[in-house]
Specification:
Layout lengths: L1 E4 L4 E5 L9 E6 L6 E6 L6 E6 L8 E4 L5 E6 L7 E5 L4 E5 L6 E6 L6 E6 L6 E6 L4 E5 L12 H6 L31 E5 L5 E5 L10
Antiparallel strand pairs: 1-2, 3-4, 4-5, 5-6, 7-8, 8-9, 9-10, 11-12, 12-13, 14-15
């Protein structure tokens, strides 16, 4: 993975893990930290996602391990840097928190019978996720939970009655309910607040930008 300076048309730095033979498939920049990025490996032997900081390019900051086969796409949420989306050849769509310790899987979304090769966050509504799979479908998910993935109707069953459209020995896919996040995303957290205490004292708090979203 090479970072280029487009003004000079020259490479600035090369990101490479000497301890791993991973084959980079996709790159995504950190939405808040300009010097950090993540790269994903499509190699089934090393299906990992690595977080790098260009100021410390000798080795990755952390490695996210959750996929069992190569990773095909990653997307970092622009509204919350604690949410990283990935999909792979193992037919899994995972939502990570790359900033928590070694990296935690906070949700897993249901998938179709075919791999998803691309995932993306909605730029206007960050709670909406889209994925494109090799069966020609584009699926939409909600991180707010309670939604079901709608499956197209079977024309054979509609014409001849239920059960006649099923083929013996073939697995039947049923709608699945999406998973909810373990903690609320940043766009749902209160940016400020206040309350009165004893003796007429007023206590207030606000979220200071650039301090990891922690209230003060």
């Amino acid at each position: 993975c090479v970072v280029w300076d487009l003004r000079k048309n020259d490479p600035i730095i090369k990101v490479s893990d000497s301890t791993s033979r991973m084959r980079c498939k996709v790159v995504a920049w950190h939405p808040d930290v300009a010097t950090q990025l993540c790269i994903a490996s499509e190699d089934d032997h090393t299906p990992v996602i690595q977080i790098w900081d260009l100021r410390l390019a000798s080795s990755p900051l952390k490695t996210l391990e959750g996929h069992t086969k190569g990773v095909l796409s990653v997307a970092w949420c622009q509204a919350d840097s604690d949410l990283l989306l990935s999909c792979g050849k193992d037919n899994r769509i995972l939502v990570w928190n790359p900033n928590s310790g070694p990296g935690e899987i906070v949700a897993e979304l249901p998938t179709s019978n075919q791999w998803s090769f691309d995932v993306s966050w909605c730029p206007r509504n960050p709670a909406i996720i889209s994925s494109a799979s090799f069966d020609g479908r584009v699926s939409l998910y909600s991180l707010m939970g309670g939604q079901q993935q709608v499956q197209p109707s079977n024309s054979v069953s509609d014409s001849f009655g239920p059960g006649l459209g099923e083929v013996a020995g073939q697995p039947q896919h049923t709608p699945q309910v999406t998973c909810q996040l373990k903690s609320p995303p940043k766009w749902l957290r209160r940016p400020c607040g206040a309350t009165f205490g004893f003796g007429g004292q007023l206590v207030s708090f606000e979220t200071v930008a650039g301090v990891g979203g922690a209230p003060s």
